[in-house]
From TrEMBL:
Domain Formyl transferase C-terminal, first and last residues per copy: 205-301
Gene Ontology MF term list: methionyl-tRNA formyltransferase activity
Gene Ontology CC, one term: cytosol
Enzyme Commission number(s): 2.1.2.9
PROSITE patterns assigned: GART (PS00373)
UniProt protein name: Methionyl-tRNA formyltransferase
Purpose of the protein: Attaches a formyl group to the free amino group of methionyl-tRNA(fMet). The formyl group appears to play a dual role in the initiator identity of N-formylmethionyl-tRNA by promoting its recognition by IF2 and preventing the misappropriation of this tRNA by the elongation apparatus.
Organism of origin: Bradyrhizobium canariense
Family classification: Belongs to the Fmt family.
Catalysed transformations (reactions): L-methionyl-tRNA(fMet) + (6R)-10-formyltetrahydrofolate = N-formyl-L-methionyl-tRNA(fMet) + (6S)-5,6,7,8-tetrahydrofolate + H(+)
């Protein structure tokens, strides 16, 4: 028999898992998501990506401001779900909620736990220079991503990948993994294993204060910093334009075997020297403008040596 599930998620990353669970015949009793927020120039209320899909599927949507009240617990229990599936929901689940479904609450996390517990595992894995990451399904407890692990899928991180690229690769991988996990749970064959106590790292939320590019680092570290913050919040530097320094976000780059003083422009193709080696800018964005390829940018803002980026 398919499971009766509560699905809890908010951003685009969670959508493939919701769709896969529904497509594989599991009954989605309710979708819990964060409430709509004002967004865009008109500050119109914007439904979360998960709520948009839930409405399209005709599934009841719940947007509580807290799960810590007796009323919230009573409503949660009233759905009579076998289990809950949680994907980037954005709200802490207290113990009574975790205990409510008879089979438990299961979280999809975008890292190879116990590495990168916390809020920003995709960004941090790239920024740290990790060679691989993945997705894991774990049975939730009250700790921060400390629950027992059920299943995992690994994925190599290449130097060409931005955070958006990795997000878009992991999201469908996670949907498939959660479907397999819920299938095993349905058959009573889901095996859980304790997380290792060694190798624990925390993926702290990205702070905009970290976004400035430091050209005094090696080229590989600069590239991973840029790609780990692309497209949001975007790693930035200042470059000369019409006699003043303008802030520009660099969204995509590649390593080049050149050398020079850190921040020095080495040619007319936006090749910038780092402490060791250099990077060539491939895509960037000026404040208030759309992202553009380096060639397009240079047609409007020609930059030549000995210009410096800071």
């Amino acid at each position: 028999m398919p499971l009766r599930l509560i699905f809890m998620g908010t951003p685009e990353f969670a959508v493939p898992t919701l769709l896969e669970l529904a497509a594989h015949g599991h009954e989605i009793a309710a979708v819990y998501t964060r409430a709509a927020k004002p967004a865009g120039r008109g500050m119109k209320l914007q439904l979360s990506p998960v709520e948009q899909e839930a409405r399209r599927l005709g599934v009841p949507v719940v947007t509580p401001s807290t799960l810590k009240t007796p009323e919230a617990l009573e409503e949660f229990r009233a759905h009579e779900a076998d289990a809950a599936v949680v994907v980037a929901y954005g709200m802490i689940l207290p113990q009574p909620i975790l205990d409510a479904p008879p089979l438990g609450c299961f979280n999809l996390h975008a890292s190879l736990l116990p590495r990168w517990r916390g809020a920003a595992p995709i960004n941090r894995a790239i920024m740290a220079g990790d060679a691989e990451t993945g997705v894991m399904v774990m049975k939730m407890d009250v700790g921060l991503d400390t629950g027992d692990v059920a299943m995992a899928e690994r994925l190599a991180i290449t130097d060409a990948m931005t955070a958006l690229d990795l997000h878009n690769a992991l999201a469908p991988l996670g949907g498939d993994l959660m479907v397999r996990a819920m299938g095993a749970l349905e058959r009573g064959k889901l095996q859980l294993s304790k997380q290792s106590e060694t190798g624990v790292t925390y993926a702290a939320k990205i702070d905009k204060a970290e976004a400035r590019i430091d050209w005094n680092r090696p080229a590989h570290a600069v590239l991973r910093h840029i790609h780990g913050l692309s497209p949001f919040p975007g790693a930035w530097c200042e470059m000369p334009s019409e006699g003043e320094q303008v802030r520009v976000k660099i969204l995509r780059c590649q390593m080049i075997d050149r050398s020079g003083a850190p921040g020095e422009l080495l040619d007319e193709h936006l090749t910038v020297a780092c402490a060791q080696g250099a990077i060539r800018v491939l895509e960037l964005q000026r404040a208030g403008k759309q992202p553009m390829k380096a060639g397009e940018f240079l047609r409007g803002t020609p930059l030549k040596p000995p210009a410096r980026l800071t």
